[in-house]
UniProtKB/TrEMBL annotation:
Top-level taxonomic group: Bacteria
Protein name, as recorded: Uncharacterized protein (TIGR02246 family)
Residue runs in coiled coils: none
Xref: SUPFAM superfamilies: NTF2-like
Domain SnoaL-like: 29-144
Annotated keywords: Signal
Tagged with keyword Oxidoreductase: no
Signal peptide interval: 1-24
Length: 162
């Protein structure tokens, strides 16, 4: 009898001390569609030099690289376009993967940055994202990029002896 009461008491105590688990609903088809639109809005805003629109894809305290908050994020876009010297670049994303629930999510997507004048690939990598659902919709709270390493130069082809 004492053993059963001790086991019951231990179970009740353990349940009381366990942290409460989130019971948020799973992502809906609407959530997925809104998140996909967020990624598209991000790309269009940076490609067409819309610093405010780009910063608005983030939460007010959102972070990308070393830039945090809307003012710093908008400044990043301005600097990025100045560094590009007017050369238009296009952000191409593919293989979007989203996991999470109705309040927060993790995203991962491939990036290919293309010079739209020469049609050459400027850079590739993978974005890793933390997203949150706000009153204004889904937003990035943190975005990191893992750039792919540049390919090693290949040796010139050997000429056949004459």
């Amino acid at each position: 009898m004492k053993t059963g009461m001790l086991a019951t008491a231990a179970a009740v105590l353990a349940a009381m001390l366990m942290p409460q688990l989130s019971h948020a609903d799973p992502l809906t088809a609407q959530d997925y569609a809104e998140i996909e639109q967020l990624y598209a809005t991000y790309n269009h805003a940076i490609d067409f030099n819309d610093p405010t629109g780009w910063a608005n894809t983030f939460t007010p305290d959102g972070n990308f690289l070393s830039f945090t908050g809307h003012e710093a994020l908008a400044g990043f876009v301005k600097q990025w376009h100045e560094r590009m010297g007017g050369t238009p670049r296009r952000h191409w994303n593919s293989n979007l993967r989203i996991t999470g629930d109705s309040t927060k999510a993790e995203g991962s997507v491939y990036l290919m940055l293309v010079d739209s004048v020469t049609k050459t690939i400027f850079s590739t990598g993978v974005y890793k994202d933390t997203l949150v659902k706000t009153a204004q919709g889904w937003r990035f709270s943190k975005r990191t990029i893992a750039r792919d390493a540049a390919a090693a130069p290949t040796a010139p082809a050997q000429q056949a002896p004459k």
